[in-house]
Amino acid sequence: MALAVAAAATSSFRPRLVVAAASSSPDSTETHRRHWKAGEFPFPTTSDAPRRSARNSERPPRKPVAAGEDEDKGRRHWKAGEFPGTPENSGRRRRSPIKNVKKRLDARAEAKAWACTVTEALSDRIDAKNWQEALQVFEMLKEQPFYHPKEGTFMKLLLLLGRSGQPSRARHLFDEMLSQGCQPTPELYTALIAAYCRNGLLDDALRFLDDMKTSPLCQPDVYTYSTLIKACVDTSRFDMVDSMYKDMADRSIAPNTVTQNIVLSGYGRVGRLDDMEKVLSAMLDSTTSKPDVWTMNIILSLFGNRGEVELMEKWYEKFRGYGIEPETRTLNILIGAYGKKRMYDKMSTVMEYMRKLAFPWTTATFNNVIEAFAEAGDAKNIEHTFNQMRAEGMKPDTKTFCCLINGFSNAGLFHKVVGMVKLAERLDVPMNTSFHNAVLAACVKAEDLMEMERVFRHMKNIQCVPDATTYSILLEAYQKEGMTDKIYSLQQENPTLVLTDFVHV
């Protein structure tokens, strides 16, 4: 052990002495043996100048210390942030730490805001879906000397007006486009037809289809027919769907997958399973309209909503056999179907499968789970699922709170219903008709008709339009209490939504 310590002592690091030229000064020996820190080494003498860099050799001599001034203070090397400030009476002018900072700040303060162009303003209004201001800016655009009618501008405006429920303005804009010399195209005609179809004006849309047929350069295509077929399906005019298919066949236009999915969904909504099977068989035999994941979701949703879990699972395996892989929405459909049948073990298995394959749990995933526990009135699991939803950063939506309100109402915890309504207000959740219907139903279960009427008045004050479900909830409550006068008032208020069979005068 002693030998090891001695060896370590002899082999320890010793800094080399800086050997300078011999000096006649008596302090030269002490200078040679001193180990200076970085930046503290004195300036070289004339004897060692050749061994140093030119930059160091040209460094100016140290400024002499004034009388009465501390010599150590002049040589001290301050650390970052330790240097003393300049006294107020020193008379020295402080320099800006960054060059031209004041000049840049002054220039920024005096700069005027950049005024966007008219075309940029129009694009912003369209993106914001503000059709009134978009039309005003478009009028300003037409007054500019560089204005030239473009198909793209009219297309965006037509789509905006159609989505905003302004079909007549869309027609006026289309006529204005023709008057300005802009030639119509199948895409522009289809946008105009879509504007009328979105607002239930199918007969007017069909007249535009006839105009397209008479125009050699604007013949309808598969997108035009898909738009019209969707309008027919939405209004349950399935006889028109067959005529559209025949018209497409006469023009050698093959329906695509989107077209078939629209019809498939429509038949499923009204329960025409035989027609659904025909459409699906045609898709399997076709080369232009092969089934996709949307087809898979439509079929699974149909059987899941009907509670036919075995058929849903059977079709799920069939679509997997066709090479169609599920997506997040597909697995959410399975979770919702299992939850309605209270098959919690299978519901948990699907959720674990999503985690394993890195499918994200979405708001719809948690909504399906909360809805399953809400129907069973399982308040404990409702709260646990909702807390986990918020812990994972999922933002609850209107359906989330509808399920929460229904669940706590079924569990008889009406104080939690009030808490959920207040929480929805704090989170700025849109309180639409479905939300108010859930609150009204909770009031009926709590047998609190005064609160029910107050919610109904609030609903009308904020211009939330009641639907058939709203009046059905109110009628059920009034009929249970024998309030025929209230039922009569509701019938007078909206005779189209209140059945006369409930009115007993």
From TrEMBL:
InterPro entries: PPR5-like, PPR_rpt. Residues 1-99 are annotated as: Disordered. Belongs to the PPR family. P subfamily. One of its GO terms (molecular function) is mRNA binding. PPR repeats lie at residues 150-184, 185-219, 221-255, 256-290, 292-326, 362-396, 432-466. This is Pentatricopeptide repeat-containing protein. Residues 49-61 have a biased composition (Basic and acidic residues). It comes from Zizania palustris (Northern wild rice). It holds the Pfam family PPR. PROSITE patterns: PPR. PANTHER family: BNAA05G30910D PROTEIN, EXPRESSED PROTEIN.
